[in-house]
Write a structure and sequence with these properties.
six-stranded mixed β-sheet, globular, alpha+beta, about 25% helix, 25 strands
């Protein structure tokens, strides 16, 4: 059987072309998510989110009008527009992407309506949607896709998938709505790029990264940004999807304190949030007008990061001791409210890289942790630990602090605002330890190690370097992602992450959505971009 790139869509005839007719689109939190609609607890047989369905789906017909208020716990950071972060929730309201994944990582049309790979994997031909305009009325063409790719190649942009964008070395336009992308070498995560890459207006991109004007093709226009307060959006009356969106507008309200955020939801001031800390979800469960929904493809992960240039963290024995010393199950229950999966590896169960042996490689064993520290010549360590100064992230840092103290590692917490923490992550200026959440394990496994800041083989935040790691990551990225060799390469990446422990994964979690029961049709894409094309507020 011939191996193939899984990002090449396949139909029953096994051809490498997907043809689709024109229409239709189908956090800051402690995790990222898949593109499916969330599953309501009320529909799940065991009181947890199940595998199919949509919160509040039964009964109501879509209703036009109304403004949806979304409670978020951090402000928009324009300089991070092209990076996936906790400030990415609004991206899909303003912009579109070329494609979107379904739950099985099969790409579906958005601004690209069909595509065809060359047999050698060195080029792909895209048919682009016609009749699409930017918010200022300018038509969308192939030139906008070319710009989007080159924009991510720009080293001045903070963008995790730059390596994949850089693999595109040539463009061949065939009119305004057909484009050939030529690749330096095959890559198996090209559709990760297509879902990640927002299509921006070249004429106003510099205004966009300063927050002055964001001009996209998406369902809503940004009409207001009040730093420290929130964002305002109005419906795009010329949106390319007929009769969408249903909503008149959307507002993002910044509510950083957990109690105030909960009050906003319970009183109806807000109808949607992905920012409720896990330990507060039991309070939400008792509210009669609210629903808790979990995105079952869970692609985010909580982790402890380690700067390998800070002694004695340059010794992997010490890093392994930290990994054995943390109680992941307690973090799952106390920090995430039981939503998620305790795991020593970054992979969700939906990933082809997931194994149960990897997930349980490090269990809570403080005795073994102390033994490893003694073998490395240490009985006590004092280290700084940076964390984001939001309720859920603080709870995670405090849990890690408690566990490490039990093995003789005393950490001093350094609370930091989200934008500064993200910039430190990108610029590799973290202290000895930090706790955050990461994504990029929910798409093609190769993307994690070539794109995510904590794991990037060429330039990661931990400053871990290894020729062996680089070699296996590069091969996993450029080789076909099916077959025995692909499985071997994925396992080698996992083994390296577990052995070197420069990133210590703690728990996998998809987004947990808290919403008014009258709200329907909310989805997120794989990079946690909020999609409200089909969202509506029932009467």
């Amino acid at each position: 059987m011939t191996e193939s790139y899984p990002t090449t869509p396949s139909d029953p005839s096994r051809r490498s072309t997907l043809r689709a007719a024109g229409g239709g689109a189908l956090l800051l939190g402690l995790g990222l998510t898949g593109c499916r609609s969330a599953v309501s607890e009320a529909e799940a047989p065991a009181g947890k989110a199940g595998e199919a369905g949509e919160a509040g789906k039964a009964g109501a017909e879509p209703r036009r009008g109304g403004t949806l208020t979304v409670a978020v716990n951090t402000d928009f950071t324009p300089s991070l527009l092209f990076a996936q972060s906790g400030q990415s929730l609004q991206h899909r309201l303003i912009y579109n992407t070329l494609t979107r994944y379904d739950d099985r990582l099969t790409p579906r049309p958005e601004l690209a309506t069909s595509w065809e790979y060359a047999k050698d994997g060195r080029s792909i031909t895209l048919a682009l949607r016609t009749g699409v305009t930017f918010h200022d009325g300018r038509p969308f063409t192939a030139d906008d896709v070319i710009f989007a790719v080159k924009n991510l190649q720009n080293p001045l942009r903070a963008a995790q998938l730059r390596a994949t964008a850089a693999a595109v070395t040539g463009f061949e336009k065939r009119g305004d709505h057909e484009l050939v992308l030529k690749l330096a070498h095959p890559v198996n995560n090209l559709f990760d790029l297509f879902e990640f890459m927002i299509i921006t207006d070249p004429n106003s991109v510099e205004d966009a990264v300063t927050g002055k004007r964001l001009n996209g093709t998406g369902p809503f226009k940004l009409t207001k940004w009040s730093p420290g307060s929130g964002l305002g959006f109005t419906r795009n009356e010329t949106y390319w999807q007929p009769d969408r969106p249903y909503l008149d507008g959307v507002e993002f309200r910044i509510v950083p304190q957990a109690d105030a955020l909960l009050s906003s939801l319970r009183t109806g001031q807000s109808q949607l949030s992905f920012s409720v800390p896990g330990k507060n979800l039991t309070v939400v469960a008792s509210a009669p007008d609210l629903a808790i929904s979990e995105y079952s493809t869970g692609g985010g992960a909580l982790y402890l990061g380690v700067n390998t240039t800070v002694a004695p963290l340059n010794d992997k024995t010490v890093r392994q001791a930290l990994a054995w010393g943390i109680d992941r199950e307690r973090i799952l229950q106390q920090v995430l409210g039981g939503y998620g999966l305790a795991s020593a590896t970054p992979w969700p169960k939906s990933s082809p890289a997931f194994t149960e042996a990897g997930r349980t490689h490090y269990t809570h064993n403080p005795g073994k942790a102390r033994e490893l520290l003694r073998s490395a010549g240490h009985t006590r360590l004092d280290l700084p630990l940076l964390h984001i100064n939001l309720p859920g992230e603080t709870a995670l840092a405090e849990a890690v602090q408690y566990d490490l103290r039990q093995i003789g590692v005393h950490v001093t917490l350094q609370p930091t605002d989200p934008a500064t923490a993200q910039k430190n992550l990108i610029s590799q200026t973290m202290p000895g330890l930090w706790t955050m959440s990461h994504g990029f394990a929910q798409v093609q496994p190769s993307t994690l190690a070539v794109s995510a800041y904590p794991f990037n083989e060429a330039k990661n935040t931990s400053k871990y370097r290894s020729a062996t790691y680089t070699k296996v990551v590069r091969e996993a990225w450029t080789a076909p992602a099916d077959g025995a060799r692909a499985n071997t390469l994925r396992q080698q990446i996992t083994d390296t992450l577990l052995d070197e422990a420069f990133i210590i994964d703690l728990a996998i979690r998809g987004a947990v959505q808290v919403s008014a029961k009258k709200l329907h049709g909310v989805t997120l894409n794989k990079f946690s971009y909020l999609n409200l094309d089909d969202a509506y507020l029932a009467g």
